[in-house]
Specification:
heterodimer; A: 281 residues; alpha+beta; Glutamine Phosphoribosylpyrophosphate, subunit 1, domain 1; eight-stranded antiparallel beta sheet; five-stranded antiparallel beta sheet; 9 helices; 13 strands; 24% strand; globular; disordered N terminus; B: 247 residues; 6 helices; 10 strands; disordered C terminus; hydrolase (chain A); threonine-type endopeptidase activity (chain A); Proteasome_suB-type (chain A); Pept_T1A_subB (chain A)
Chain lengths: 281, 247
C-alpha cells in the first residue's frame, strides 16, 4: 500500500472511491498505520522524557483575537530549545497554540492543518469555527493512550468566526474535552500566572495593539514565576510569537513588531518589576 | 455457443477513442494560459457551485472538460494523492509532473481495460513556478497520454480551433486583464467562425498567482473583481491588446 504513494502508477481504488471529505477518515481507511492515534506503544515504565512546550495565551478584542506563545521547550529541568515555535496558523481564519509534548503536538498541528485544508479543497467551502474546534477535539481524544503515559498534548485554539463576526477561543483538556473561553485563556505550565495577569489587565474594549501588549505582559508574568516558561531573550533576539486573527485573516507579528512591544515592556519592568498595577477597588 | 465477432485491436481502440471524444465534445471548452504573474483558467460555466477549476495543492491547479462525475472523482483522487504525499514527505515533494503522471497512468489503464468504459474527460494540470520559466502546464487527453504545453492550451469539444486562435495571439508577459480578454475572445468563437457574447456571470475564472504571499497560490476571481478586470481589458481597447495595466 505504501508503495502506491511513491510509485508513479495509477491511483489506487481507494483514492477514487467517493467518501468522506475528511483527510483523517481517508487515512484511517487507506493507510491507518500512519495516523498518530493508531500507533502501538510498547509498555513503558515511568515517564518518557521528551521536550515539553510550556505557555500559550489568548485574548479577544472587538473584531478579533490574539494568540501568543513563549519560545521555550524544556525536558525535565533542562532547557531543550530556546526558540521553539508553538503557535501555528490552522487555516486562513484560525490558529492553534500547543503546550505539552512538543514532538507529538507539532505532528498533531500538521495533521490538523491538513485536515482543514483537505476539507476546504474537496468541498469548496470552509468548515465552521465550531466544526474546526470539534475536529481538534477528536484528534486530542485519539492521543489519549499516549497522554496516559505522560505524552499529553493540550492545545489552545483561537479563530475569527466569520458567521458571528468575532474572535473566539477554545481550550481543551487531555481527554479532548473542549470548552469555549470568554475573553482570555491560557494553557501550559505557566498558564496559572499568565491567567492571573490577564485577569487584572483585560478589558473588553482593547484595541488590537493593546491586546498584543496584553498577551506579552501575561507571558512575561508566566516566565517570571514559572521556570519552564521563557521570557523575551533580548541577547539572542528571541521574542514571543504573537498572532492576530481578524476578518482580514491570520497575521503573525513580525520579529520587529514583537520585539518592540517586548522591549517596551522590559523597559517599564526595570522600574516596576511586577508590571502594571490594577486599581485596588 | 456462438463465436464472438473478431474486432482488431486497432478498431477497438479507435471505437473507444471516438466514444470518449464525443463525450468530451458535448461539454464546453476551457482555456488555460500563462500571464506575467502566473497561470489563468477561463471557462464558460453557468453553475456557481460545480467548478471546472480547482486547487489541488499549494502551487498546483486542476482544470477539466467532459463528464462532471468522472473528472470530479479524478480531482478528489488528486487532492488525496497530493495531501498524502505532502504529509508523508514534504510539501515541496508534491509536483505537477508527479500528479500528471498519476493521472496519465489512471486514465491510460482505464482506457485500455476492456472491462471499463473509457473516461470522457480531458484534464489540465498546471503548476505555477517562481518565474514564468518555471511554470508547467500538462494536458491529459482521455487516453492517458501527457502533452507538455507552453503559453496556452485549450481542452474540450472545440479545442483545436481555440488552440490555433490562442497560439497566434498569445504573448509572453501579458497582464492578467489582457490574458483574460484573449481567453474570452477565444471562447466566444463558434465552430462556424461567428462570435457570441459570454456574460461575466457565466464565466468561471481562477488563477495561480505567484505574487500571492500565502503558500497556496490558487484563487478564484468572481463578482466585482471579475467585472473590473473585464472592464480594464476592454478599456485597453485596441486589437493588439494595449499595455494598460489591470487595476
Amino acid at each position: 500500500m505504501e508503495a502506491n504513494t511513491r510509485s508513479t502508477g495509477r491511483l489506487p481504488a481507494a483514492f477514487l472511491t467517493p467518501g468522506s471529505s475528511s483527510f483523517m477518515d481517508f487515512l484511517s481507511e487507506h493507510q491507518p498505520e500512519i495516523l498518530p492515534g493508531n500507533r502501538q506503544l510498547p509498555p513503558t515504565q515511568g515517564v518518557i522524557e521528551a521536550p515539553h512546550g510550556t505557555t500559550i495565551v489568548a485574548a479577544t478584542f472587538p473584531g478579533g483575537v490574539v494568540l501568543a506563545g513563549d519560545r521555550r521547550a524544556t525536558m525535565g529541568n533542562v532547557i531543550a530549545q530556546r526558540d521553539i515555535e508553538k503557535v501555528f496558523p490552522a487555516d486562513e481564519y484560525s490558529a492553534v497554540g500547543i503546550a505539552g509534548t512538543a514532538g507529538l503536538a507539532v505532528e498533531m498541528v500538521k495533521l490538523f492543518q491538513l485536515e482543514l485544508e483537505h476539507f476546504e479543497k474537496v468541498e469548496g467551502a470552509q468548515l465552521s469555527l465550531e466544526g474546526k474546534a470539534n475536529r481538534l477535539s477528536t484528534m486530542i481524544r485519539s492521543n489519549l493512550g499516549m497522554a496516559m503515559q505522560g505524552l499529553a498534548v493540550v492545545p489552545l485554539f483561537a479563530g475569527y468566526d466569520v458567521d458571528r463576526g468575532k474572535g473566539r477561543i477554545f481550550s481543551y483538556d487531555v481527554t479532548g474535552g473542549r470548552s469555549e473561553e470568554l475573553n482570555y485563556a491560557a494553557t501550559g505550565s505557566g498558564s496559572i500566572f499568565a491567567r492571573g495577569a490577564m485577569k487584572k489587565l483585560f478589558r473588553d474594549d482593547l484595541s488590537e495593539a493593546e491586546a498584543t501588549t496584553l498577551v506579552i505582559q501575561a507571558l512575561y508574568d508566566a516566565a517570571d514565576d514559572d521556570s519552564a516558561t521563557g521570557g523575551p531573550d533580548v541577547a539572542r533576539r528571541i521574542y514571543p510569537i504573537v498572532t492576530v486573527i481578524t476578518d482580514d485573516g491570520f497575521r503573525r507579528l513580525t520579529e520587529t513588531e514583537a520585539s518592540e512591544i517586548a522591549r517596551s515592556i522590559l523597559e517599564r519592568r526595570l522600574e516596576q518589576p511586577d508590571g502594571p498595577r490594577a486599581a485596588l477597588l | 455457443m456462438s463465436t464472438p465477432f473478431y474486432v482488431s485491436p486497432q478498431q477497438a481502440m479507435a471505437d473507444r477513442a471516438e466514444y470518449a471524444r464525443k463525450g468530451i465534445a458535448r461539454g464546453r471548452s476551457l482555456v488555460v494560459l500563462q500571464f506575467a504573474d502566473g497561470i489563468v483558467f477561463v471557462g464558460e460555466n453557468p453553475s456557481r457551485a460545480l467548478h471546472k477549476f480547482s486547487e489541488i495543492y499549494d502551487r498546483i491547479g486542476f482544470a477539466a472538460a467532459g463528464k462532471y462525475n468522472e473528472y470530479e472523482n479524478l480531482r478528489i483522487g488528486g487532492v488525496r494523492y497530493a495531501d498524502l504525499r505532502g504529509y508523508t514527505y514534504d510539501r515541496d515533494d508534491v509536483t505537477a509532473r508527479g500528479l500528471a503522471n498519476v493521472y496519465a497512468q489512471t486514465l491510460g489503464t482505464i482506457f485500455s481495460s476492456a472491462a471499463e468504459k473509457p473516461y470522457e474527460v480531458e484534464l489540465v494540470v498546471a503548476e505555477v513556478g517562481e518565474t514564468p520559466e518555471g511554470d508547467q502546464i500538462y494536458r491529459l487527453p482521455h487516453d492517458g497520454s501527457i502533452v507538455d504545453e507552453h503559453g496556452s492550451v485549450a481542452v474540450g469539444g472545440n479545442a483545436e480551433q481555440i488552440s490555433t486562435y490562442l497560439d497566434q495571439r498569445h504573448q509572453e508577459g501579458m497582464t492578467l486583464a489582457e490574458a483574460l480578454k484573449l481567453a474570452v475572445q477565444a471562447l466566444s468563437r463558434d465552430t462556424n467562425g461567428s462570435e457570441r457574447e459570454i456574460p461575466a456571470e457565466r464565466l468561471e475564472v481562477a488563477v495561480l498567482d505567484r505574487t500571492r504571499p500565502q503558500k497556496r497560490k490558487f484563487r478564484r476571481i468572481t463578482g466585482g473583481q471579475l467585472s473590473r478586470l473585464l472592464d480594464a481589458a476592454n478599456g485597453g481597447g485596441t486589437e493588439d491588446a494595449g499595455s494598460e495595466d489591470a487595476e
